[in-house]
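TASK: fixed-backbone design
INPUT:
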C-alpha cells in the first residue's frame, strides 16, 4: 500500500523513525526559556504592546517554541483578522493537536509542522495566514470539538471538520502491553482521541484476549484500527477490521501497513477494501467497509471475540445483536 500522504509531503513516517526521538522531541533544551501565561486572562493584558509577535518571537536556538508561545502567535493572527476579540484568552484560541502525540508530563516545546489546530471560528483567510506565518502549524481545521467526526451508525449522516489550509494528517503514539503502535489519521475525518499513559480500551482488550490462545477477532467498529492492530501485536491469529465510514476503514488499512502488517487495497469503497498481502507467523488480517447489520451475510467465518467500540451516546445493543452469530464472545469497549 502506498504510504504517501494526500498532500504529497512526507507526513507519514515509520514507527522506528518516530520512536527514535519521541522521548526528547518536546522536552526543553537547556537554553529553552520558561513561559508562564495565564490561560484565562486576556492575552492583551499579558503582552507588551510594543512587542512584535512573529515566527522569531520566543524561539529558542534549538528552533523550537513553547506551546503557549505558538498559541499566542495564532491568537494574535486571529485577533488581527477579526475572528477573535481583543479580550480573548489563550483558552479561547483553538484546540491544539500535537503530532506525533503521546502522553506528556510537561507543556511541550514544538518543532516545525508539529501542530494541527481546530477552531469553530477561523475562516479561510485567517487559516491560510496561520499556516504561512506560524511554522509549527501544519494544518487548520474549522469545526467544534463537541461534534463527533465520522459516522455513528447507518442511521446517521457523516460529519467532518473542514480543512481550510495545510494538511491535517497527524499521528498518535499509543502505548500497549504488546509494544507501541503509531496511529495516523486525517483529523478532519476521524474522531479525536488524546493518548493516555495506559489506554482503558486496550486494557479491556488485553484482559479479553487472555482467555484465548491465539484468538480470532472481529473489530466491527474499528475506526483508525487501534484496537485491532494492538490485538495483532498481542498475538491474535486473525483480525478482521470493519467500519461503516470509508475514511475510517481506509485509515485502518493505512495504519496496518505503517505498523508492519502490509495490505493490498482492493480498489473498492465498500465490502472488502484491503487484505493482508502475507501472513506473519500464521497471522492474517482483512479490512471491510460494511454496515454492521450486514456483516453476517458478508463474512463466512466465525470469531472468538468481537470488539464493539461505539461512539459516545450510541446504543451498542443493535451492534451486539448484529454480530451475535459471528462470535463466541462480544466485548463492549
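OUTPUT:
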Amino acid at each position: 500500500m502506498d504510504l504517501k500522504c494526500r498532500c504529497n509531503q512526507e507526513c507519514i513516517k515509520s514507527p522506528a523513525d518516530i520512536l527514535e526521538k519521541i522521548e526528547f522531541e518536546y522536552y526543553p533544551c537547556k537554553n529553552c526559556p520558561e513561559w508562564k501565561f495565564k490561560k484565562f486572562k486576556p492575552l492583551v493584558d499579558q503582552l507588551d504592546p510594543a512587542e512584535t509577535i512573529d515566527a522569531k518571537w520566543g524561539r529558542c536556538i534549538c528552533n523550537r517554541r513553547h506551546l503557549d508561545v505558538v498559541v499566542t502567535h495564532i491568537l494574535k493572527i486571529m485577533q488581527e483578522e477579526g475572528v477573535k476579540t481583543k479580550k480573548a484568552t489563550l483558552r479561547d484560541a483553538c484546540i491544539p493537536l500535537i503530532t506525533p502525540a503521546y502522553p506528556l508530563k510537561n507543556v511541550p516545546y514544538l518543532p516545525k509542522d508539529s501542530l494541527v489546530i481546530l477552531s469553530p471560528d477561523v475562516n479561510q483567510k485567517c487559516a491560510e495566514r496561520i499556516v504561512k506565518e506560524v511554522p509549527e502549524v501544519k494544518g487548520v481545521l474549522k469545526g467544534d470539538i463537541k461534534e463527533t467526526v465520522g459516522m455513528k451508525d447507518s442511521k446517521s449522516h457523516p460529519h467532518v471538520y473542514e480543512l481550510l489550509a495545510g494538511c491535517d494528517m497527524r499521528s498518535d503514539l499509543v502505548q500497549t502491553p504488546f509494544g507501541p503502535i503509531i496511529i495516523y489519521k486525517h483529523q478532519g475525518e476521524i474522531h479525536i482521541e488524546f493518548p493516555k499513559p495506559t489506554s482503558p480500551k486496550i486494557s479491556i482488550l488485553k484482559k479479553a484476549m487472555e482467555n484465548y490462545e491465539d484468538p480470532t477477532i472481529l473489530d466491527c467498529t474499528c475506526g483508525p484500527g487501534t484496537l485491532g492492530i494492538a490485538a495483532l501485536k498481542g498475538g491474535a491469529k486473525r483480525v478482521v477490521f470493519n467500519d461503516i465510514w470509508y475514511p475510517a476503514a481506509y485509515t485502518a488499512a493505512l495504519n496496518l501497513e505503517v505498523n508492519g502488517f502490509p495490505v493490498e487495497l482492493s480498489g473498492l469503497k465498500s465490502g472488502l477494501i484491503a487484505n493482508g498481502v502475507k501472513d506473519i507467523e500464521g497471522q492474517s488480517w482483512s479490512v471491510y467497509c460494511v454496515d454492521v447489520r450486514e456483516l453476517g451475510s458478508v463474512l463466512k467465518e466465525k470469531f472468538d471475540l468481537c470488539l464493539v467500540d461505539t461512539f459516545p451516546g450510541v446504543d451498542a445493543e443493535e451492534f451486539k445483536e448484529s454480530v451475535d452469530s459471528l462470535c463466541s464472545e462480544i466485548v463492549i469497549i
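COMMENT: The radius of gyration is 21 Å.
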